[in-house]
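Human:
Care to share another protein and its fold?

Assistant:
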Amino acid sequence: MKSSRIFFLILTASLAVFSCGSPGADPDDIPEFKPNEKPSIVDPVPEAGVVPPKDGFLAMGFVKDAETGNGIPNVVVSDGWNCVKTDSKGIYYLPAKSGKSRAIFVITPGDYEPPMTDGIFSGYVKRGLKATAAQQFDFTLRKRSADAAHFKALMVADIQINKNGQYYDTAREFFRGVKEMYQNEPLPTYIFSLGDLVFSTSSRNAVSQSMDDYKKFISSSGLPSFQVIGNHDHWPQAKAPFYEATDGYYQRFGPVNYAVNICGIHFVILDDMDWGEYTDTEKAFHDGLNDEAVAFLQNDLALVPKTTPVMVCMHVPMTWFKGSSYWTTLHHKEFMTALSGHDVHVWYGHTHHNANYVYTSDQLAQYGIKSMSSHSVARSCGGLYMAGRVFSTDGVPWNVVEVEFNGKSLTYHQKTFPYTCPNTTYKAEFPDDVWAIGPDLTGDGYVWCNPYMYDNAWSLPEWWENGTKVSVMEDMSLSTLFDPYYLWACTNVHHLTSDDEVKHAHLFRVKPSEGVKEGEVHVTDRFRNTYIRKVSW
C-alpha cells in the first residue's frame, strides 16, 4: 500500500531592517530605513518543526523569541475574527474559516517589539480567502529593552494623498516635517495614522498608486507606524462580497482590524465602515462596525486585563464630542459594551477638525466602562480643499497629536511644526497647543483664542490686561462660524475666498477694554499646564 504524506505550508512573519539617510532626504529617493528605537526581528526565523494539525483548525504555528529560540507562552494570535493564546510551548491553533479569514497576525505582547518592515507594521501573513487546507504560520519576536515603559505615540489623520493631485506635495512636506521634529527624539516613538491615507477615486489603479506613494512618504519619516483604514482607502466601486473594497489596503498594510501591545498599553485598530450596496447615492458605506470588526473587538478585549488602558484607533467617530452626539453608527452598543471594565481613549479622524470630550460616569454606567475620553484629530496637513492651507477649518495648524505614555499614565498635546506652504512663499510657524490673535488680524474688535485640544477638563480661557485678570473669554465653541485665523490665512496667504464654516469645539473671544493695545490670554489644560499667549495690536 502506498504511504501518503501530508505537507504543510510553513510561513513566517519577519522584519527587514534598514538605516535612514540624511534629514533632508527626498522621499522619492528614500535610502535605507532605520526606526528610532531598538528594531524588531533582525535574525532569520529559526527552523521550526511542523505543528500537527487538529480537526477544525485551519491555522496553527509557533511564536518564538528571536534570541533564545524558545516558544513564547500566552501570546495572542488572531485571524481578524477569533483570538487565541499560545500554550506553554508557544504553539497556537486557530479555527480560521475559509472565505472569511484573510490574514493571520500576532498581537505583540507589551514586552516585545512590534514587527516592522520599512517602518510599517508587518506582524501578519496573508492567508487568502479561498484557503481550505491547514496552514502553519510562525512568528518570531524580539524582546524590548527593560526600561521601555516610557514612549510616545503620534496621532495623525487624513493625509489623503492623491496621485498627481493637489495633496501630493502637501503630504511630502508633512512627513518631512515629522522627520525633522522627531529624528533626535530619545523616547521610542510610533505613528498611528487614523485613516484616509489616500484620497480615493473611481480608478482602482489610481488608489493603489496613491497607497504606494503613502507608504514611501510615511517610511521616510523614520518612525515605525500603524495604519487605520478610512473611507477614502476603500475602492468605492467594489461589489459584493466587498473584500475587494479593502484589497488595495490589505495588499500593502495587512489586516483592517488588528491590535498591538506597546509596553503596558493596548492599542486596537478598527475598520469602522461597513461597506455595501446602500441606496445612499453619496457613499457606498455606513459608519460603524461590521460583524467582523465586532467579533474581533469582543474576542480581543476578552483577553486583555481590565487593568490595561485601551487606546481605540479608528477613522469615523463612534463616540461623543463637544456640541454633538456620536454619529449614527452601526453596532454602537456592541462597541461600547466590549470596552466594559477598561479605561479607554478613542482616537479618530474623518471630521477634519479637533474635538475632545470626557465622558461622565453617568454616561458610562450602562456599559460598565471605567473612564473614556474621545478625541477627534484635525486633518494633519491643513485644510482639505486647497492644497497646503496653513490651517484646518477649525484653525488648527499643521500638526501631530503627541501622546506620551509613562507606565499606564498618559498626557497629550498638539505639536505644530514650521513649514513653507506649498505654492507660496509663506513660512508658517505657530505655537503648540494654543494660539491667540488680536483685532489687527480679524478687524472685528475681538481678541480670539483657540486651544486646539480643549475639552471639558480644561479651564475657561481668561483675558488679562496690565497683569490683572479682566474677564473669562466668551465660549464660541457651539457656534457655526468661520475660524478667524483660517479665514485670515485664506485671504492673506492663499488669496482665496473661503466658504468653510465649521461648528467649532474650541474657540473663545473677548472684547478688550477701550484704548488697550495689548494683553494676555491664560488657559490651563486637563494636565494642569498653564499657557500664556501675549497679544498686541
Observations:
- Confidence is low (pLDDT under 50) at residues 1-48.
